[in-house]
Predict the 3D structure of the following.
Amino acid sequence: MKGHVLAIVMFVVLVVLVAAGTVHSARFTPARTPESAVRSLFEKVKSNDLAGAYTYVSPSANVDQQTFTKDINGRDGSLRTYSKIESVETKVLRSDDNQATVRATTKWSTAVGPMFDTRDLKVAKEGSDWKVLWESEKQANLPPQVIPVNYLRWDIIRRGADEDWGAQNVESPRIRILSMNAVEKDGSVVIMGEVRNEDTVPGFVSVGATLLGKDGKTLGEETSFDKVSHTLLPSEISPYRIDFPKTKLSDVQSVRMQPASLLIPASADPVIGVLHQRLEKDASGRTVLRGELVNQSGQTVNIPHVLATYYDDAGRVIWVSDAYSDKALLPQTPVPFSVDVRDDLAANVHSYRVTVNQYSIDRVQ
Amino acid sequence: MNPTSPVSTGRALTLGAIILLALAVHGPLLLMQLPVTSYDANTHMFFASHYAGHWFNPWNEKWYGGFSQTTYPPLAHQWIALFSHVLGLPLAYMFVQLCVVLLLPVGVFRYARLWVDERSASYAAIGSIFLGSLALLVYQSGQLPTTFAAALTLNALPFFYDWARDARFSALLKGVAISVAAAAVHHVTMIFGMVLFAWPVLWLAAADARREDRKTGAAPIMRAALFTLVVVVGIIVVLLPLFMAPQAATGQVPIPHGSRDNYILNPASGMNFWVIPHGLLLLALPFVFLRGCSNARLRPLFFGWFLTLLIGLGGTTPVAQVLLGTIPKALAGVDFFNVLTYERFTFWATLMTLPIVGLLASELIRRMPRFAPAGLAVAAVFTCALAVGWTYYRPINSSPFKVDQVVSFLQNEGHTKFRWMTLGFGNQFARVSREVDASSVDGDYNSARLLPELQASGAGQLYNAKYFGTAGMEALRSMLKHANQYGLKYVFVRDRYYEPLLAFAGWRQAEVYDNGNVTLWVKDDVPPARKLDFGVSVPGWQGMMWGTLPMLSSLFAIFLVVALPERRRVAETVEFPSAAASAATLREAN
């Protein structure tokens, strides 16, 4: 009998422990403050529970779950569709008994690196709980139309199947480094400048650099990686930037530049226009370069990449910065972009130039 | 030992018959090489392939630009390597796994004999053949070292009991030898599994000493401490290079794993990590509770099983999080909870429950000799079939793909001069690794890596970079940035998620394989790979130790078991009226 009591006790212990583990991670916990409503919403997104996240959206926002899911997960193969939320920070900007505005700064892990997004969300009290008045991103709905295309295209005829793998028995396109400037920022040596394709054929370009120390030894070897436009059409210019972390400029004796090029097939399509460029301060007081991108082709550009080159009054490149947009460029539809400018350099910026690099799913085949 | 049990009327099944049954069930499945598609089998075969070619040199150039295999206990891999010279690598893996599957019922039988009578123990041993948890570990997870070490641990425990209880020196020798061999197979089983299995046995030895020998339980505890001390010294000697191995400096960023879920809120995880591993064993749980709690002798086993079961429930209860997460983090700053996976704890729990289930089977057969055997057989076969079938209907690779063309590319036209990596290949990365001579900057055993780009991140494999969030993608970016330094020219992509990064970073798509499932991306200005100098090496004497001592430890254990056979304890039925005068006694016989 004593044993049976113990068995019942142990079974009850098991049930209680399971209940404790289950109740603790219950799907919906009512938000008692505006901040907790926003935080809970993004925490649910983080744990991939979009249905749970939607429970924190106010019905009065008139956003259905499908639209909300698309807002969070992205659409049209944009960078957001290649992203996952990693952390969220919230700050109450304004609050009264029934309404509040909460700033949510989210960090996303994306296919091209970490990305931060700041969004000011309105939150309303409904009964005893707070819920988010989610504002859905409106998508332009263009009328059907024909877009004439007339662009340059370079194809390559290869020698044949007996050719050695990867061998390219043609001369590489001529490229030239137009400028090079070395500065030290935040404990890193930064090499930047511009490179130009001086040939009549397109080239696949990369720029590497080796820092040599006072004793002639190599201090570091880095490449421009994604801070360059790799495909350069004839006469096209791209900025480049190469970072050497944890290096002092005073230790550097010389820099050995290693531009490389390769003949590739290429096309001038899609043409992406840059409109309304201007330098201004953002909500947090940082200097940014803003503008709009317009895809002038009839195909979707999934991930646009903006490279900005800043010049001083002598025409020298003083900084290169870049940013990816998490929205796809639909045909003829402007999409805003914003690129950080270092505050310590902003006063010296005399002019700037924006280059747009792009990735389209259908073109990488 | 005086196992508590009802009086058994029938004879126990012989171990030989049980082993033959195990061979009949698992032999064909392993001959079909089902574990080849499992999660970890290719990694273990990769380790083995290195020993097959470089027995005394554990430095492997093929992963991470070079790493030391002394970071993982070698015994399972060395046995595979040994047999691979005759059978080839995949079949050698299957053969060693088969040996383990045959060794497991022997261990379960001997372990169960500590708690129950011989007949019930034989039913427990039969049950171990059909365990769903075993089938999943073998055919889904490919965790050969886990199953190998568990089988050895179970075989060591009766010697541990004998030494603790009776101070038999031969038991000490054999118990220590088998335990050290188990550690040479799998360190995680030794750290966590051995503790969970051993404390109920020690409790039993102390209780038996008090109850039957009229002695205090102090002596068994002291002898257990001595046993532990000798085992620890043995492990340190045999696995010395493991403790001296150059290890990764950072812990791994935890990635979500279904075994850490709450199984009620995530029914899919609950099915895979709890329901399927238990199968119809779940029907026996009420009996396990009742008999385990009501019988004093079975109580240590019950509590040991209960704790292991709770941990095996992963995030369903707070127990695993507190015991393996909160407490170690507070004491030593280490969070084991998010690093470990819990399917092995469920496996151990199912093994621990078998003696009581054997008792249940024994009672059912005694009460219903016509129907119970058929019912139990159906239940056992259903449990095993369900688990094996589950790996087919819920495969871990949702869309299988072929890597033959990838292997062929890397092996031809001088491509071995360059390093390579895969993205989105999952466990097929290890398969490609073992079939090609070219070296990769990635690897499938993060504790061993020395490349600074990987050590700094704390993320696991590059081929799964996206699952490690920012840390993983930063490690991948960093590696791609330094492609020229490492001679990293080829990236095989099976997950289009990674294409934007490659495209923006200056890689271009060159070839397409397997009807577009896999694409090859290349970087054209990459010079051929050169040997990397990490400033660390494995000295020759460590290579010699690594190539001899672990293998010798297992051979020594086999020698002791064969050379010093156990005197079998046979229950003797004492006829009435003598039975009234004294309890049934045990007689030792050869």
Notes: Strands of chain B lie at 59-60, 67-68, 419-423, 488-493, 508-513, 518-522, 568-571, 586-589. The CA atoms of residues 119 and 576 of chain B lie 22 Å apart. The mean pLDDT of chain B is 90.
